[in-house]
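New to this. Help decode both lines:
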Amino acid sequence: MAAWSLPVGVAGMALIVTAWLLSLKDVPSPRMSALYGAGSALLTIHSVALGDPVFSALNAAATALALANLVRALRRGFKRGCARGAP
């Protein structure tokens, strides 16, 4: 295992746990989706460094889903802003 991969994996896990905790109040918020996406991306790097294709694919999919949710949340926010008469 590469010496740098453990801290990357732990950082990714910490971001995902933080996102889960935030989701108890904000489901689904752009903040939660961004944290989850960043954490999943770091865990993807970690699992690639370990040579684990299953967790690499799983974490890559989680990253893609989190980014899709972030885009959806931002679009919804922009639509609400336009509905209020924003320029």
